[in-house]
Amino acid sequence: MKIILTHEVSGLGAAGDVVDVKDGYARNYLVPRGFAIRWTKGGEKDVAQIRRARKIHEIATIEQANQIKAQLEAVKVRLAVRSGDSGRLFGSVTPADIASAIKTAGGPEVDKRRVELGSPIKTLGSHRVSVRLHPEVAATLGVEVIAA
User: Fold this and answer.
1) Mean pLDDT, rounded, for 77-99
2) Per-residue confidence band for 14, with pLDDT thresholds at 50, 70 and 90
3) What integer is the mean pLDDT of 15-42?
4) Which of 18, 136, 138, 145 is spaced 20 to 30 A from 8 at the CA atom?
5) Could you please report the per-residue DSSP string of the chain?
6) Which string of DSSP letters, residue by residue, matches 84-115?
């Protein structure tokens, strides 16, 4: 099935790309979550609009991405969450929580879709988080989860 990506999907493409995927993947995952729309002849106008919006929010050069990477890696991110006596969290830390914690810690504004968690953060302590700034540049930063 041919689809137009509306958001960046790891391993598949960036917003505005026209890709061919299996029918079930598109129908059951990408389209319901708003990551893609079905490709039509009239959809070509949407592709141009999505690409313009992507250019506005995109980090243009590798040098700019490296500067933001240096800023991110210098920031100490602490996130206060509710937890039980054993150190387990009530729920988990989401990429949106991390993006807002980076902003409040004085770091650059980061889109929550660029924050990649290896596994869900469900315990107190120090965790490593990756932020994909550019296809060739990713920043790794430490997030300290503390009890609120």
Assistant:
1) 91
2) confident
3) 90
4) 145
5) -EEEESS-BTTTB-TT-EEE--HHHIIIIITTTTSEEE--GGGHHHHHHHHHHHHHHS---HHHHHHHHHHHHH--EEEEE-B-TTSEEEEEE-HHHHHHHHHHTT-----GGGEE-SS-EEESEEEEEEEEEETTEEEEEEEEEEE-
6) -TTSEEEEEE-HHHHHHHHHHTT-----GGGE
